[in-house]
Amino acid sequence: MTTQPDLQPVAPTADDHAVKLLRQMLRIRRFEEKCAELYTATKIRGFLHLYVGEEAVAVGVMEALRPEDAVVATYREHGHALARGVSARSIMAEMYGKLEGCSRGRGGSMHLFDAKTRFYGGNAIVAGGLPIAVGLALADRMRGDHRVTSCFFGDGAVAEGEFHECMNLAALWKLPVLFICENNLYAMGTRVDLAQSETNLAKKAASYAMQAIGVDGMDVLAVETAAVKAAATVRAGEGPIFLECRTYRFRAHSMYDPELYRSESEVAEWKKRDPIPALAASLKAADVAAVEQEISSEIQDAIAFAESGSLEPVEDLERFVYSERTGRHSGGPLCAMDETDRRRA
């Protein structure tokens, strides 16, 4: 049986910052719930991995980041994108496969991307974002930029070779990476203690001579506190830091998942630690109601925007296969590889 971490109750607070955190978590929760409805109605197609239950991690970490920092995420990234500042409109349009989406409708749920907010995926491959994050951080270090690259990944990524390679290189080169392991106890349908001989994943990262910390991922204030301190250390040039946020997803791995690997009672127990009502309980009911109304309007606007969006024309099917700077669609020469192939033909 899986066990819950030693969780502490959220300290009562009623300040504006708490309302801000609640708003962000509720935006993610309501957005995800609506996406599930739209998927059932076949408005959204393909794969869909929801972030319900894990909102405190994305919201807490984003509070530690600056606009110039980079964010690399997983395929369960809607919450990360919303918390980072990618608009609900562009995300929903992407879900619908519309041209107005943040990836022009070509990526869908698992491949959200937004250069303006330095949100570099949405990566569908398990652990695929780790090398990207290390590369971004290496570039920052070589330029002398004091920026942080935050990299989100699940506990399943710890079993991949890229994890170990990236931990080693980041520590060896003292790269400015904030690694965020969202340990929700299940890599798809495999319980963590059936896949990892050492279930304290922070210990694995610590073996690469980097600071590694475990934090209650169901407490947005605890995540924020740990992330703010860690980001400041990383930004100061003291090397990477690994945060293991112990959390839990309330819904299935994806919309196709029959959830045969865990019991309903286990899910019910974890729902008692839901980070949203835990924080909402410390606020006035009027504050919560106002936030809910605001979010409802935002989501309805995003759906209307997506519904009225346009599909990419068939004529653009080959667009972006080659760089527009030198490729076929720019009026310039073909790319070097294409020109070589043409001469050989």
Description:
By secondary structure, this protein is of the alpha/beta class. It has one domain (16-312): Rossmann fold, CATH 3.40.50.970. The chain is built from 13 helices and 7 strands. The chain has helices at 16-40, 55-62, 78-84, 88-95, 129-143, 161-172, 192-195, 201-206, 220-235, 264-271, 275-280, 285-307, 336-344; strands spanning 70-72, 149-154, 177-183, 186-187, 190-191, 211-216, 241-246. Strands 1-2-3-7-6 form a 5-stranded parallel sheet, with helices on both faces. Strands 4-5 form a two-stranded antiparallel ribbon. The chain starts with 15 loop residues before the first helix and ends with a helix.
Describe the structure concisely:
The chain has helices at residues 16-40, 55-62, 78-84, 88-95, 129-143, 161-172, 192-195, 201-206, 220-235, 264-271, 275-280, 285-307, 336-344; strands spanning 70-72, 149-154, 177-183, 186-187, 190-191, 211-216, 241-246. With 345 residues, the protein is α/β, with parallel strands linked by helices.
